Amino acid sequence: MNEATPATASWNVDVGSIAGMLQLLQQSLPIHKRLVHAGDTVYRVGQDFGCLYVVNTGFFKMVNLSGEGREQVVALHFKGDWMGLDGIASGHYGCDVVAMDTGEVWSIRYDALLQAGLRTPALLTALHGAMSRALTRDHDSLLSLCTLPADARVAGFLRYWADALDQRGLRTDQFTLRMTRAEIGNYLGMTLESVSRALSRLARGDVIRFTDKARRDIHIPQVEALTHFIQAASTQPLGAACH
Description:
Layout: H1 18-28, E1 32-36, E2 41-43, E3 51-57, E4 60-65, E5 71-77, E6 82-83, H2 87-90, E7 96-99, E8 103-109, H3 110-119, H4 121-147, H5 150-167, E9 174-176, H6 181-188, H7 192-204, E10 209-210, E11 217-219, H8 223-233
Antiparallel strand pairs: 1-8, 2-7, 3-6, 3-8, 4-5, 4-7, 9-11, 10-11
Helix pairs in contact: 3-4, 5-7, 5-8, 6-7
């Protein structure tokens, strides 16, 4: 547990950066840090809301359960992302959040955050920024599902992953996908076979390269080539490369 330090120190922090935001939280609030491993659940749907969670390291997926009992991956979270925002209005978390690899997640009591925000307005700025990014992400995801053919969706997914790594100062030219083909298809509204075919077409065009037999380690010679691929694929009729 971290003890909060005087709020005045936080005014020198760049809350707009991920590192600055994490530093601000540590300076201003008591934080409980939890080490998680792949498959561990941070919180479950229906659980009483009390805390917000911030990713310090690792990758996480948000999973919803349909009326038919089918799991649906609805969001991905990287370092600096806030989780649990869906519980604020209803008082209960609306999804499961599951770790995709070893990482560290910080839990922050929501009531403590609001109280500290009265002394340190930058905390509320950080919270509102997280809410705004979540809305934008949901909008972009829905737009992709509604307007892009299958190949473009997969390329867009890889570009999204690479951009998320770039924002966090990590390598974008080579990374390991922390999701199976089935999970990617679930997230993108596609079948496993359609995801595999799209990845193969990207590889044949040398937009991406696989560096291991399991085809989970991906090398991207030029990230901008993904954007060009998306633009070219998007000129096809929507039904030409779906599912």
